[in-house]
Amino acid sequence: MRKLRVDGQETPYWPAGPFKIRLPFLHYRFEWPDYFQGLLMCAVDLAAIPLMVELLGMPFEVALAVVMMNGVLYLMHHLLGDPVVPGWITPAIPLLMAYCAAFPEGPERVHALIAFQLMLGLFSIFIGVSGLAHRVVQLIPQAIKSGVIIGAGIAAVISVFKVGGRFDSFPYTISIAVGIAFYVIFSRHFAKLKSTNKIFGAVGKLGIFPIVALAIVVAPIFGEAPWPTIEWGISKPDFTTLWKEYTVFGLGLPPLSMFISAVPTVLAAYIVLFGDVLQSKAILEEADQERPDEKIDYNPDRAHMIFGARNSVMSIIGPDVAMCGPLWAAMHVVIVERFTQGKKTMDSIFGGAGSFRWGTNTGLLLMPIVTLVQPILGIALALTLLIQGYVSVRIGVMEARSQRDLGIAGIVAAVLATRGAAWAFGVGVVLCALVYGKDFFRGEVDKTFVKDQDA
Prior knowledge:
Strand order of the largest sheet: 1-2
Low-confidence stretches: 451-455
Order of helices and strands: EEHHHHHHHHHHHHHHHHHHHHHHHH
Radius of gyration: 22 Å
Number of domains: 1
């Protein structure tokens, strides 16, 4: 029998140190609308497969095994008390791919990925256990932080539009899909339509799934992808080949030099994912005001321990180019929006986030869904990267506090997108030292973003 929540208190849980264990049906109500949405939205999780095929030469079934294991670990968040919809570290994907591509394809490149993801995971766990998250980020000058986030966004866009990139393979479909996606997600006009029309409101709540569904039809019409060949049954991931050829069980541990060389890229990825942590907290704080009947406890240190553990585990059993991030921003916003509509719509935020991720895991098991979206996974990935590029550039610019910060950030971003994280940090440190001198860490604040306010 499910334990009922007293209004104004947290959803019931079993205490376990810093974690709060909650199980479906026992501690939270299962939300079937979010489950069925997750069942379809597993298409976005599957979009990680082309990344692994491209970078590591993985067969489709092996990459599917990685996606499925990552999907299971997504459940850790809500089960252990983190009320979010977790996802990839999307803005850092192009940075990691560029770093790994510097190594020869084969065992050496896989070792580079393992070393990076294990270091990122252990570093995140350390930050979470010690409670040092805010202090670590404060030690990095604002101009460099701004440049890293902007650079990650630019790198995401470059990966789509570079010569021979995904846009060249699907020009018409990507143009149509991205145009509609930007209108649906970012347009003020569509935001007004959502508030006045139930049909548009329903479309808006589905995130990017309607656009992915549209791509399934548009791509074959323009001859950019075949019509899907639907297969029935349960999907068949190849765990055996994964463990023998792409993990430490078959390849052994990476050499120490690879862990050392990965440090700048790890730091860059951490800056990006810390922005997701802050975004998670801000979104949930707004939801907490709308729903005083459920007290929401979001703990950044607990979140660090969970996604740090996910990255550490995946680095050993299935290195993942998409990485294990703290937030899938688009779907988290959709879930929170439903939550704010009242207790009858969604009893608990854990029910919404958890049911959605149970749904994505179910979808990955079903061959009809996997084969339906398989021809357009590259398009789904391009769509995700371009949306993330837009968001990253916007957030990165707002991280800067002055025109000098913006100037430094622009150069750091360009270097990051073209030469990698190590060069970007080096250039950023030199520029901050030259421009700010003794105010290296503090920088300056001007009226760049408050130009219309009185002094």
